[in-house]
Design brief:
By secondary structure, the protein is mostly helical. It has one domain. It has 11 helices and no strands.
């Protein structure tokens, strides 16, 4: 018996939300597109920056213990995983392994050249969030400004002030939606930027240790 009131409340909530969006006018369309793009970028970054895609735990431990594995001749499985290049660490470690036996400076230069491409991969999608963060509030303000212009153009000496107040409230709908889109994107942008910094620092530490071992090894 309790399910019917809950269902009616859900229908009322959907109807109210739809009325709110419909009153925003044509500017709700680009705002809707911006919200979809922002959500897609956030989901993409969550997947792209997962630990398994950047620094798998098992491979990180193997890289840390690379010297011991090399001494005990148990390095073949690690080299195969590195050659597959299924993560950022594996791809950069493969550059170090290919330059085994060379001076550490040469190894570091080779890694730095490859790290630019990996850095671009890690930051892919951040630019999209930047655009959504910038454009969404501006679209909201543009929608509000156009709504206010239409209201003020219709003013006369006998204008209904209550109707004007309601019109202004409706015109602010697009600003509210624009800010509602931008705020979670700002939070996600800060989180992803910090996560990239942490992952990059971890990569630098692992690769420096690996380069130190490989400079003493022989191809």
């Amino acid at each position: 018996m309790l399910q019917l009131p809950v269902a009616l409340s859900a229908v009322d909530a959907v109807g109210t939300s739809w009325d709110f969006l419909a009153k925003g006018g044509i500017f709700m369309i680009p705002l809707g597109v911006a919200s979809i793009v922002g959500l897609a970028a956030i989901l993409y970054k969550f997947l792209a920056l997962s630990r398994s895609r950047v620094i798998p735990e098992k491979l990180a431990r193997d890289v840390e213990n690379f010297h011991e594995l090399l001494a005990s001749e148990r390095i073949e499985p690690v080299l195969k995983e590195i050659e597959r290049g299924e993560s950022t660490l594996a791809r950069l470690a493969s550059v170090v392994v290919k330059h085994r036996g060379k001076p550490q400076r040469d190894i570091i230069l080779a890694v730095e050249a490859s790290s630019r491409q990996e850095s671009a991969r890690l930051h892919a999608g951040i630019g999209v969030l930047d655009v959504v963060i910038t454009v969404s509030p501006l679209l909201g303000l543009l929608g509000t400004a156009s709504g206010l212009v239409a209201i003020f153009e219709g003013l006369s000496d006998s204008a209904d002030h209550l109707a004007i107040a309601r019109g202004i409230a409706i015109a602010l709908n697009t600003t509210i939606v624009g800010l509602a889109i931008a705020v979670p994107c700002v939070v996600a942008h800060g989180y992803f930027t910090r996560r990239i910094e942490v992952l990059t620092a971890r990569l630098e530490s692992l690769l420096a240790d690996l380069a130190n071992v490989c400079q003493k090894a022989r191809p």
